[in-house]
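Ticket closed. Logging final result for Protein visC.
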Amino acid sequence: MQSYDVVIVGGGIVGLTVALTLATGELNVAVIDAQEGGQALGDKPELRVSTFTLATQTVMQNLGVWPLLAHNRLCAYEKMAVWDQDSFAHIGFSHEEVGQAYLGHVVENQNLVRALWMKAEQSEHITLLAPNKVSNMVFGQQESFLTLDDETMLTARLVVGADGANSMVRQKANLPLTFWDYEHHSIVATIKTEIPHDNTARQVFTPKGPLAFLPLWDEHLCSIVWSQQEPEAAALLALNEDEFEKSLMAAFDMRLGRCELVSERKSFPLKMRYARQWVTDRVALVGDAAHTIHPLAGQGANLGIMDAVALAEQVIKIAEQGKDIGLTKSLRAYERWRKTETVKMIATMESFKRLFDGANPVQKLARDIGLSTMNHLPKAKQKIVQHAAGLGGELPLLAQHKLTRQAS
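Final structure:
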């Protein structure tokens, strides 16, 4: 029987961030995942990418993870451009509006997982149990008991569910969930563009859903995220490459010239999930286990990373006070804090989605006027871009400034 302060189920970006932050407080942590995260990047771009804010970058710098990334595979985006298809509505944002060198980075998910995994391997306080799965989990009064599929048995004062949208931890702990189906699927692929992307993240709102072009490290490569209703998404996936490229260029108003598909296409259903309870005795949820949101603003990964750091900082504080880190009453402050931030984001995304959903002439005119007016209001734009860059809201300490204490 192996005993730990905290066992984290899920060794992705969010779970590993929890582990590394806890290690700064010298808590002993185990991370369980079905696969090892240290695999090297392939020559071709990974399909799953995320946009990471300046706050997320600060977290990774403070944890000593940022130097371990493959920096030749990062793209620092300096501008954002948003427009409504077939209308005069548009708005643009620049790094200069917030006095920063850039607004954030587009990072392949595996690039960050690999760097986090490498840093975790260096820590004397973290045990990586992978490839492995949890076969049974029981929550006791003083500790939790976990059995892995290789019959390894663990105990922990706290179990953290970082195991994604279909979280086993959430289900085992009977934490209630609110959800609704956006009735959209998100198509992702890598595209080679005729015109260089100029380190700009672009998004067009079409009557059938938003289409984003996220710049990659090569000036002619972009990762697309194309949200469509399920029938349209299926039809697009069924097209041959030439027909798909034509549909893509038409939807994107030819902003980057000819587009060439250079990867496979994959589709993912979009659902909003929100756990009505994030903590209970011996259990806490983070990231997609607690919430999933629409990807139109690219904030899902950043929300999860802020959850991870906020929870870990709260657990360290509880431990330093000599209190039980696994009690609900000790973890309530984390739950209230991160629930508030998540509800704000869910409400914002739902408002944007409804505003840009469909081609009703009155609604279209309203959003055209609104976007164009906002584009000429510097102070209002500055607030929006500060939030998009992760410079607003209530941030964990690790996201605010450089710390002297690093994960060992």
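The first strand starts at residue 2 and ends at 9. No further action required.
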